[in-house]
Write a structure and sequence with these properties.
- By secondary structure, the protein is mainly alpha-helical.
- The N terminus and C terminus are likely disordered.
- Strands 2-1-4-3 form a four-stranded mixed beta sheet.
- Helix 2 runs antiparallel to helix 4 and helix 3 runs antiparallel to helix 4.
- The chain has two domains: 106 residues, no CATH class; 145 residues, Helix Hairpins, CATH 1.10.287.1700.
- The protein is 68% helix and 4% strand.
- Strand 3 and strand 4 form a beta hairpin.
- The longest helix has 83 residues.
Length: 292
Amino acid sequence: MTGEERATGPSEHAPGADEQAPGADDHAPTPVQASVRGRRALDALLDLQDLDTAISQLEHRRAALPERRQLARVVAALRGVEDRVSEVEASRAALVERQEALESEIAAATARREVLEKRMYAARGTPARELQAMDEEIHHLRERQGQLEDAELEVMVALEPLDSARAALQAQSAALGTEAAQLRAALAEAEAQIDAELAIQRVARTAAADAVPEDLRSRYDVLRARLGGTGAARLAGNRCSGCHLELPSMEVDRIRHLAPGTVVTCEQCGRILVPTSSAPAGSSTSRSSPPD
């Protein structure tokens, strides 16, 4: 080694001077590139939040379809009508059973009376005492038959309003059944339309989730589950779009002077807070990404 070589020393060839040490990462991001990537990750997180919000809104819309409420009302009314039909049927069945029992008794009394009357008319040489007994029994059977027929008439009178009520309830049940069938068809159609939208949004959500770094996405998922479906919010002006509260000016100024892509949270609600421009939150110009 010459004296000149000893004077300069090996520091001129140290890694990072005019060449990299063997094995060094030739593609390590510069601070600017890291900042851009961080900002893109936050933008992707906002996209994910927007899609999650849209999906939640569609799911709420599906659950709150007016056809669903109307169908529930009609089904409840139909169930009430069917309950009243059952009550009427039970009352009517008891009366019909009573009527059949009375008719059976009337038929038995009539048959017995006719037998006795034939015996009396055909009787020759029958002792007067027996004839008198048969006549008394015939008289008693006629009275009993009259009582039974009066009771049967009362049953028939009681059956008339029940028959009318049953017919009216059956007509009402048929109308409600038709309305319920129409509402079920309308509900199925409305659900199918929303399900188609949901399918599109869920596919987009999967793609958006893949664009968010795993650690950031995990943190977002935890916050979203805890904070009513919103884990990331925009900082538009001084206001957090998640809790809709204004942050102190000093805090907002501090956040806006952080390196782009720095992950911060709202001191009011704890959501991941993404600074945006002064454009309204959710607009196409609401994000300010640094150039590559």
